[in-house]
Amino acid sequence: MQHRSMVLQRLFHHGPASRADLARATGLTRVTVSDLVGTLLDEGLVGELGPAASEGRVGKPATLLGLRTGAFQIVAVDLTDDLELRGAVLDLAGTVLERRTRAAHGLVGAAAQDALLDLCRDLVAAATAPVLGVGVASPGVVDGAGRVLEAPNRGWRDVPLAAELAAALDLPVHVANDANAAALGELTYGGARGDGLLVVTVGLGVGVGTVLDGRLVQGERHAAGELGHVTAVDERDDEHAPLGAPRPCACGRTGCLETVLSVPALRERVAGLPPEQRRAALAAVGRRLGIVLAPVLGALNLTEVVLAGPAELLEGPLTEAALATVRSRTMPVIGGDLRLRMTTLDEHGALAGAAVLVLSGQLGVS
Fold it and tell me: Are residues 203 and 275 part of one domain?
């Protein structure tokens, strides 16, 4: 399985190659590569594209092989947004072929699961090629088996989401935390570097996905990145006055970061404000985000922070204030070269990441 993944990974990221090229790139023997390619041709994942350019060489030119990105499709669902569940059918290259949504405002517990299953069935029916699998980017703490241990905003606790969906759809299903999925999407499709990346997803709640030295940081109990439930507003600190009194959070505590940074909280904060007051209100939230991020970035020396969510709320005053705050609270060697930007995948980064969950889980490609 590992050797198969090495071949597919090479074709996915670097394009067509001959059998000899694959052997050199992967370090596998030509016999092993030939056997693997034969299997992949039979499965329909790889196709022969014709002879490679000879470049003056004598003899029969090698045959180029390529990943058949349109031969299979992926169903991906993003549960980040506060108003709707978002889903898509994608090919293996990440191109969105179909989109579907379901209203999600106020949906919790079993009702949210029912809406998710209905959306997945609709997307599977819309696929025009065999479905490789289903990927779901879910808020909350999700373990390696796709069980949602705790997702306060959806009212889920200890829900075997991947297993239940797989049984209902008769397809492989991969479920991961939405921010972790968004980080994978940024690495695979968004051009982010993997040496030190932090992705902040802002939707119904706030999540953080972290990649350090090319590896996703998950923590002992899969709860790494739960900065949305770090206390950010404390009534004992006068500096918090622009944000108002601490508010209750879905997790049962008060003053969590997502009580000021989530999309519902941001929309409420800026509703009806004239332009200058709107900018000031968003900047106040950005400063609070920077205060929360500074010790994390200082401890891990990450080089890039990506925000994923509605650009009309996050881009501009909020992002600028967050970056300025981080730089004012960290050493120049850490904050000076830090990139803090909006995602290049628009606000659907977690959707792309959900597709990567399937690529990784089924093909070993990410």
Answer: yes
Among the three residues 41, 67, 93, which one is the final residue of a domain in this structure? 67
- Is 265 found in the same domain as 336? yes
334 shares a domain with 196: yes
CATH number at residue 29: 1.10.10.10
Q: Given this model, what pLDDT does residue 213 score?
A: 81
For 217-240, what is the mean pLDDT?
Answer: 74
For residue 208, the enclosing domain spans 192-343
Number of domains the chain is built from: 3
Q: Judge whether 14 and 39 are in contact, CB under 8 Å.
A: no
> Both 264 and 335 in a single domain?
yes
Quick one: three-class SS letters along the chain?
Answer: CHHHHHHHHHHHHHCCECHHHHHHHHCCCHHHHHHHHHHHHHHCCEEEEEECCCCCCCCCCCEEEEECCCCCEEEEEECCCCCEEEEEEEECCCCEEEEEEEECCCCCHHHHHHHHHHHHHHHHHHCCCCEEEEEEEECCEECCCCCEEEEHHHCEEEECHHHHHHHHHCCCEEEEEHHHHHHHHHHHHCCCCCCEEEEEEECCCEEEEEEECCEEECCCCCCCCCHHHCECCCCCCHHHHHHCCCCECCCCCECECHHHHCHHHHHHHHCCCCHHHHHHHHHHHHHHHHHHHHHHHHHHCCCEEEEECCHHHHCCHHHHHHHHHHHHHCCHHHHCCCEEEECCCHHHHHHHHHHHHHHHHHHCCC
| pTM of the entire predicted model | 0.83
For 76-123, what is each residue's pLDDT tens digit?
999 988 789 999 999 999 889 999 999 988 888 999 999 999 999 999
pLDDT over 90 percentage in the chain: 54
Whole-number average pLDDT of the chain: 89
| Same domain membership, residue 306 and residue 220 | yes
